[in-house]
């Protein structure tokens, strides 16, 4: 059991990028296991935050997903898509055409990218966090989230649930209950609602997802204040 004794992120950084570049290069977006024509549950949860259309939204590991198209279509003015795969981002940009200029595109690894501080109102992640099977990787992810999200901001996570298969896209995944997700994010992220939802891949594999919406609490005030 030596997995977490040494930080693993340095060793994994290049393989992670090449894994995802190869994956996106090997199939069209519609053939990928996580593909959905529209991320309706994510859109509903973003709507449920009550944030207005000036909110800054980041789709972490957004890949080639159409969430950005739909957010622009309903009027969100400040959308960022971050992904480790340049190929995935380029697919999304080409699909959007001129509208791509209204989006901030960040190519990088969420575990190592230096995020803008207190910048985003809404952090969305569908099917990214569950690939972080090492404790140090998750610590880095949550560090990026805590740095980038404003106090009072919203977090929407879609992960494999404990009923899902143990692997996806050829990689091991960590499967979540709400309790486990809460314990990973920490007590400042308060769950507001959650649901499980079955996703069937284009190849017919059934994967149960857990979606959860969190609200970041203001940093605790000192007893004297
Ligand atoms: C299963 S796909 C989900 C894509 C998209 N969120 C969706 O729901 O359609 C996982 C995505 O996370 C990206 N990814 C994986 N590890 C990452 C990391 N460490 N930093 C940034 N992006 C990452 C991959 O390139 C890929 O686009």
> Which shape, going by the Cα principal axes?
globular
- The proportion of residues in beta strands is 25-35%
What distance separates the N and C termini?
45 Å
Number of domains: 1
The CATH H-level homologous superfamily: Vaccinia Virus protein VP39
- Give the topology string: H per helix, E per strand: HHEHEHEEHEEEHEE
CATH topology descriptor: Rossmann fold
The percent of residues in helical segments reads 25-40%
Ions, cofactors and other bound molecules = S-adenosylmethionine
Structural class: alpha/beta
CATH class: Alpha Beta
Question: Could you name the ranges where pLDDT drops below 50 across 5 or more consecutive residues?
Answer: 1-14
Backbone CA Rg: 17 Å
Overall pLDDT = 92
Strand order of the largest sheet: 3-2-1-4-5-9-8
Please, how many helices? 6
| CATH 2nd-level architecture | 3-Layer(aba) Sandwich
């Amino acid at each position: 059991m030596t997995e977490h004794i040494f930080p693993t992120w340095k060793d994994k950084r290049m393989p992670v990028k090449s894994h995802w570049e190869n994956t996106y290069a090997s199939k069209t977006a519609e053939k990928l296991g996580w593909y959905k024509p529209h991320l309706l549950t994510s859109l509903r949860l973003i709507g449920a935050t009550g944030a207005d259309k000036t909110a800054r939204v980041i789709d972490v590991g957004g890949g080639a997903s159409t969430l950005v198209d739909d957010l622009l279509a309903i009027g969100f003015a400040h959308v960022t898509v971050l992904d480790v795969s340049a190929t995935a981002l380029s697919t999304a940009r080409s699909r959007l055409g001129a509208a791509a200029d209204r989006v901030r595109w960040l190519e990088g690894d969420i575990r190592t990218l230096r995020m803008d501080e207190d910048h985003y109102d809404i952090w969305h992640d569908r099917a990214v966090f569950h690939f972080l099977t090492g404790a140090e990787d998750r610590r880095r992810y949550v560090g990026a989230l805590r740095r980038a999200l404003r106090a009072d901001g919203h977090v929407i996570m879609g992960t494999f649930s404990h009923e899902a298969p143990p692997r996806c896209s050829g990689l091991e995944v960590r499967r979540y209950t709400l309790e486990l997700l809460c314990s990973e994010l920490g007590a400042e992220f308060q769950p507001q609602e959650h649901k499980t939802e079955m996703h069937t891949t284009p190849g017919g594999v059934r994967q149960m997802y857990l979606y959860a919406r969190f609200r970041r609490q203001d940093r605790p005030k000192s007893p004297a204040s």
